[in-house]
Design brief:
Helix content: over 70%
Structural class: mainly alpha
Number of strands: 0
Order of helices and strands: HHHHHHHHHHHHHHHHHHHHHHHHHH
Number of helices: 26
Oligomer: single chain
Amino acid sequence: MYLTNGLYNLIKGLSANEKKYFFQFIEITGRENKIYYDLYRVINDTDSLDEEYLRSKFGASYGGNLGMLKEKLYEKILNALHNFYREDKADHRIIKWTQDAKLLIHKGIFRLALKKIDKAISHSTNYDRYLLIMHLIGLKKTILIHTQFDSTTQGDIEDLQNFEKKMTVLLDTIREANNDQLLYYFYISKNENELATKIARKVQQKLQKTLPISAQTIYLNITAHEYETNGDMIRATKQINSHIELLSSDKNYLKEYYGNYLLQSFNLIYLLLYQNEIVLAAHKLNFIKQEITDNRIYKHLMLSLYYSNMFLLHIFHKNLTNLDRDIAAMQLDYKKLKREVPPNLTKHTIYCRACILLAIKDYKRCVQYLLISLDIIATLDYVFYKFWLLLICCYIHLKDVRGIQYAANQFKSYLKYGNEYYKEDSFIKHYCLHENLVIIKPKAVLKALKSKPSNKELYFPFNLMKEF
């Protein structure tokens, strides 16, 4: 079932140009591929996955092994996509030239092989892509030995050795940056914020040195996240701007890392919203929206990020009408793509709508909306913690003691997420600071929940009601 779901999502996620290329790929590779074409057609033409129908239609084919048939189709689609994008990415070009060089070496055509190697090495350094750099250096050494060092001087050998040493240091730097990133986000996921902060401080010092671009982007991402976590939005914005400038410093480099550039652009919009730079955030969102229709590779990612930030924009305007209009537009856009709205975007949509209902003081509707959506939002992560805060804030405003008790009894297992880190980027904090309302702040709620006074009348939820 896992493979079927993956295949279904892969087929539904193909663009029109990718589908056209896949059909051509199937036709070129022979008539025996007709069965894959038929299976592809059935999955592509359905609006929902029906495993039983697939089994009844194709179960007798391919030796009765439907699982193998689906796996073969999966591989053929991936192969077609590799061919379709082989010239679009530096990694694909470097891999191809490396393979060309190995074939030429095998045939004894060493000069042409050397040209391919030099081309791949040059591309690696220009695009900051070092996946095969040590392998390429090894191939170059192989050619020198096979040609018995024809026209090779002592200086040439020393230059190659020095270049290898330089690449070794560079690869160690990138490896260290990747390990720092891995540990930082691991500690964040485990709420070990002090350990994460120690790594962030070391990273800030490393950024003072000259680093390869890939290491710089990793460190800028970590420091921006750390500043944002600590509520220093100005410094976080500065780091993200530096990240964007670095990615866009070269036209070819920007094309290579456009996905990362998009993520940083949307992160910038997010920070602008939380600094009340509403006009500037809206301007940047509209600018990005114009690019969505023209971008075939990142369209799905751009749609997801665009709507998630647009919904936040509606929160700050407290505009429920515009939010509902854009929710309908989002659903239509995904329907056109023949894809489901991503689960995280669905949860974010519910969260934003509940935030507006809270902000316009429609507490009863907010509670009803959250409870109706409980099956979608009930997950053991930070997202659920934010929903829980929204629900309990509504109950407190309504002075609904039973409701508060219900929330406490149902959601106590999620309290491990109630620490300083998880409060920082919640709309609840913004709401508490900017609304002239009598409201229990998240910290007070959590303190009350964790307290265990001997006098039961002071125990939660009754001690919360003393705030009114």
